[in-house]
Predict the structure.
Amino acid sequence: MSDPSGEPSFCTDDAPLSAPLAHGADVAAHFHDYGQLRYAARGALVTATQVGTWVAPASRIMWVPPFAVHSSKAYGETDIRVLSLPVTLTGQLPAEPSVFVASALLREAYLALMSEGEPLESPRARLLIDVVLAELARAAQEPLRLPEPIDRRLKAVTDLLHMDPASPATLAELGHRTGAGERTLSRLFGSELSMSFRQWRTLLRIQRALIELSDGASVTDTAIRLGWSNPSSFIDAFTELVGQTPGGYRSSARSSRSSHG
């Protein structure tokens, strides 16, 4: 969906979309003049913008506001349901991309809206849209936005970590691989991303843990695969950032998947 120059393209197709995405499937950077809600009934969708990366597994719903440039990647066999909202209906939604915790009512209303094939202008569809918007207005927002850098030296380091979140490499070692000094990189993490290297890598690992746990992986396997030295340290970090234990999150995510599998 990008033009040959690599610039993000303007997308004009605002029709509702229900489609399977294979594991690893990419949607190139693009934007549109309407808002977009994105729900993965199965699998998980990672949405990246210039300012951050968000993860939306089956227990979450993603909001992309009008004109926000974004790209996507599917993790696992992903069943994505995309609903476009005109600007006139987006006034109560955030001005930046966000992820919301999806209540049972929100999921059911959203899936009914997407699966019935009913014109969005119909009275029933408008009622369902009203329910979706009302539930979003009271839903908790997922706080796990991973900030992304603009500085090319810092981006070279974060790109390596995106490819291998479990990497035990120190900032000095990553700097040696990318041609930047440790002190410079440490300063850039603080000034550009408002967090330390360690905090950023932990947040990246927690985002990937959301995907692993939603796909049914055990807490212990997830901890080891993503670079924690033991499950206890993973549980502590996850609980502090997400607000619930990895086991609790895994159970709620699997419940969401089984309800709509």
